[in-house]
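Hi there. Long-time user, first ticket. I'm pasting a complex I've been working with (about 868 residues overall). I'd like to know whether the download I got is complete or cut off, because the file seemed smaller than I expected. Thanks.
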Amino acid sequence: MGMIFSLVAVIVLVAIAFMGAKQNLLGLFGVAIPYLAVLVFIAGFIRKVIKWGQSPVPFHIPTTCGQQKSLPWIKHSSLDNPSTTLGVVGRMALEVLLFRSLFRNLKTDMSDGRAVYGSNKWLWLGSIAFHVTFVVVFIRHLRFFMEPVPTWVNAIDAADGFLQVGVPHLLITGVVLLAAATYLLLRRIFNAQVKYISLPADYFPLFLIIGIAVSGILMRYFIKVDIIKVKELTMGLATFHTTVPDGIGVIFFVHLFLISVFFAYFPFSKLMHLGGVFLSPTRNLANNSRAVRHVNPWNPKVKLHTYEEYEDEFREVMKSEGIPVEKES
Amino acid sequence: MADKPKPNDLLSEINYTPPSRKWMDTPVEWKKGYYCYGAKPKNLDYIGFPNGREWNVTEQDWKLVDNWKEIFLEGMENLLKKFRSFRLFMDICVRCGACADKCHFFIGTGDPKNMPVLRAELLRSIYRRYFTIAGKLGRIAGARDLTEDVFKELWYYFYQCTECRRCSVFCPYGIDTAEITMMGRELINLLGCCTDWISGPLANCYRTGNHLGLQPHTIKSNFEYMLDDLEEHTGVRVEPTFNRKGAEILFVTPSADFFAEPGVFTCMGYLLLFHQLGLDYTWSTYASEGGNFGFFTSNEMMKRLNSKIYAEAKRLGVKWILGGECGHMWRVLHQYMDTMNGPADFLEEPVSPFTGTKFENAKSTKMVHITEFTADLIRHGKLKLDPKRNDNHTVTFHDSCNTSRGMGIFEEPRYILNSVCNHFHEMPDNTIREQTFCCGSGSGLNAGEIEELRMLGGYPRANAVKYVKEKHGVNMLSCICAIDRAVLPPLIDYWVSDVGVCGVHELLGNALIMDGEKERENDLRGEPLPGMEDKGEEE
Ligand code: SF4
Ligand code: SF4
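Hi, the file is complete. Here it is re-exported in full:
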């Protein structure tokens, strides 16, 4: 049900954009909505991060995934159980860039009355392919918002087209992004455990991204749009001298609208893991809590059972057992 | 126990494919053997916990206070403001499912709500409903109302999590369902719905200084038994002191170590070690508990119980503190104690009196783990050891959840083990170190009434033990945790059989050559040492 709902929602979004463009509401779909979406994205993102930031980290709770630093002759695992800030930076880099934890993934099965744990790197592969291509595609698109296009963006673009097939050159990242998003979607549908835990909020972003990728690919290779005019429009957005040239092609507005929805939706969704991963106290703290005191800003005052109260209750038995006491009676 | 199901029957029921019915529509099936008894009012009253009352988990009416929902939601808001972990973990889970089959309770029961992600979703759905904008849309946004049935469901599953953190290792954002369970239990405790098994030790510990409620004279007499046994086995009379001012070191260990087998054998190992060294140390009857059931209840209760350790160290004027073998005790000492009850500026940075080693890693908390202390001694050749005395044991090592994933103690105990015994084999890689499997009874779940759940939760651990038993002939499962020592024997009996359970310092005690000892014929359990089997019979 969650899946159908999300699919329908994305189809409706496509239809809205389609009709909007047909109705020539180009100012709305080409300028107003994109601006609004970016605004919502920025404000929402900041609001969420502030919200997280307002809650302190009362305790020092890294999840340690390797040998601690203790005695000098014991080899310590400086990345999976860092004891210094530098180590934490390393751990976070591994986590954010290489998905270290997902790389550990296993699959548990029962076979012959025994639990067995098989290596299972598909989720890691799918995720990393998805995220890396997403970032590259994002960077590639900077060419639409910069004039002249910086050489590094061109370089990425060129590298992306290394296959040198088709006109225009096939950009491999777009295809991989679509494939990876499709894998993640199929996994959600066919892996019974993942299906069971999935919410509409899990399908929706996938359909949205698939919609963005498909419309982008269609636009580049099949239903060509006037790329010069597109750039006029996007440069107008980037420089705040907005203009909506005629005759760009409807598919462009569908693409742009889905992206706008993506941005506006982002801060209110699980997509915020982009920001959250950096704040996770089980990953971003050094395991040095016995060497450096961690301070809890709200350390509560609590009622204690003092030694005096204890001795008052047990003084006689303590004395008869020869256990030293503070007061004789 | 007579009607206990057979291992194979339990196993054949496990199925990892969740049902087609949506989880929000699936009510809890209250299975006997899967839930604990409710807390008694007298224990809650003693520690000043609210809403204590006579109630019964199995009854429809839990006798919750009228405004329970407000209390719950207010409490939740409060925790969201206090713990970044909580708010963040509520927000960023992507339901990738990487954690799903990593929980021993899911592996053992196949109950989909024991997938860590779903355990968290039980509460996350409430978070969405009451604390997010999208959640106002209700079910389509993954939100649901807080009802009495939902509260009971939370209760059921937050007491089916041992706060072991295995899920957190595999989560790409480090989402720690143990943390969420801890928040859930804080809320449960606002409504007086603690379990009997947890609230009893809380009240005991608050009053007598230890979970078992041992009063000073009982502690003393328990030690006398151990000392007599030690004298019989070694010919050496060990004379520990209690509450002694001016000792250099305060030693704290879980009270289970001086209460019942096989924990007492580990304790006897400590006693021999300290005696042989001539360590200037004292036990305390006031701070007679290293463990901390407050950790399974609320951060405030954890602080209240933990405070005794520093308070006693200060009163006795010791220089630093040494801590025995325990899992959750060490998570509290390592990650919480200094923050809650420090700074321990009245203590000195710990230095081993025998090797001069400075324990730099404990320079603020001033509390050293016994395996760090002992490994350092062995490394410096300060102990005379005869590992042959453990030759009748083929040993493996169970990494406790808390020392593994909340600390990272892996090599210290292994170094000791390899020095005190000749036959050591690891369990498979995916079941040890940071990926270790829980005993199934941690976080206050070692209650008798949930034995079936515990057997199932402990199944992955037992399964790995069985593997090394068949492959290498392992017959001794060593560990550094008091709860393990209490709960692994029945677990192993159930699934594996004929594998003993011991602490690392028990094996050390066997191997340790004492000055002035008689010819050792028995191990610390009073069983003949290898090569001495006939000796006993001749006499
Ligand atoms: S691994 Fe982490 S993000 Fe993935 S489902 Fe589990 S808790 Fe959520
Ligand atoms: S902390 Fe352990 S018991 Fe709790 S959900 Fe995670 S894996 Fe399961």
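A couple of notes from our side: The domain at 9-30+50-193 of chain B is CATH 1.10.1060 (Fumarate Reductase Iron-sulfur Protein; Chain B, domain 2). Chain B touches chain A through 119 residues (CB under 8 Å).
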